[in-house]
Each structure stands twice: as C-alpha cells, then as structure tokens.
C-alpha cells in the first residue's frame, strides 16, 4: 500500500492550507494511507488553538483542528517553527504533537510519497 506524508508550510490564510486538509481527508477515504502530517513554517499556526485572525483563516485552522481531533492522524508540528510563532504546549490544539525535524526526516526516509503544500 502506498503511504503519503504531507508537509504543510502554508499558513491558515493561504489556499494551500485548505488544499492540504482536503488532500488529507481524501487520503483517509482512499486505498492509500497517511504516514505523517508535518507542519512547518507558517503551517504550524494551523495547530494554534487560540488563533484569532481576520479573513476566515481561523476557520481553516479550526477545520484542521477538528479533523485531527476526530481522526487522530500522526500530526507533527515542528517545535522550533512553532515557538517562533507563539505556538507552545499551552496553545497547541489537541491531537497535534510538538516534535523536532527528526520526525520529518523519518517521513522522508520511510519511502512513501511526499506532497508539499506551501
């Protein structure tokens, strides 16, 4: 079975964040599997449970958070990128985990397919 890892660097205000969520949902309902979600750069803001923005970006973040909470995929958030953007253990939404870049290296070495949403 083909496994996918998704790298999400698009922040909640970018269309790529919603496209990544739609792709993750589609993978869940397909013969393929999701090995890892990795949030990096502004993508870490999707895991910020207290995010409050204009223009619907917070709705995208809430949609991600609801899906992660409901389906429990491996949702890794780069700790370095998160701390730079004010995302800490205290503000991290349920189901997400702060990790180092080693988790992304693991996904790359796993041998599946990688898709980047920036």
UniProtKB/TrEMBL annotation:
<dbReference type="GO" id="GO:0002143">
    <property type="term" value="P:tRNA wobble position uridine thiolation"/>
</dbReference>
<dbReference type="Pfam" id="PF02635">
    <property type="entry name" value="DsrE"/>
</dbReference>
<dbReference type="GO" id="GO:1990228">
    <property type="term" value="C:sulfurtransferase complex"/>
</dbReference>
<dbReference type="InterPro" id="IPR003787">
    <property type="entry name" value="Sulphur_relay_DsrE/F-like"/>
</dbReference>
<dbReference type="GO" id="GO:0097163">
    <property type="term" value="F:sulfur carrier activity"/>
</dbReference>
<protein>
    <submittedName>
        <fullName>DsrE family protein</fullName>
    </submittedName>
</protein>
<dbReference type="InterPro" id="IPR027396">
    <property type="entry name" value="DsrEFH-like"/>
</dbReference>
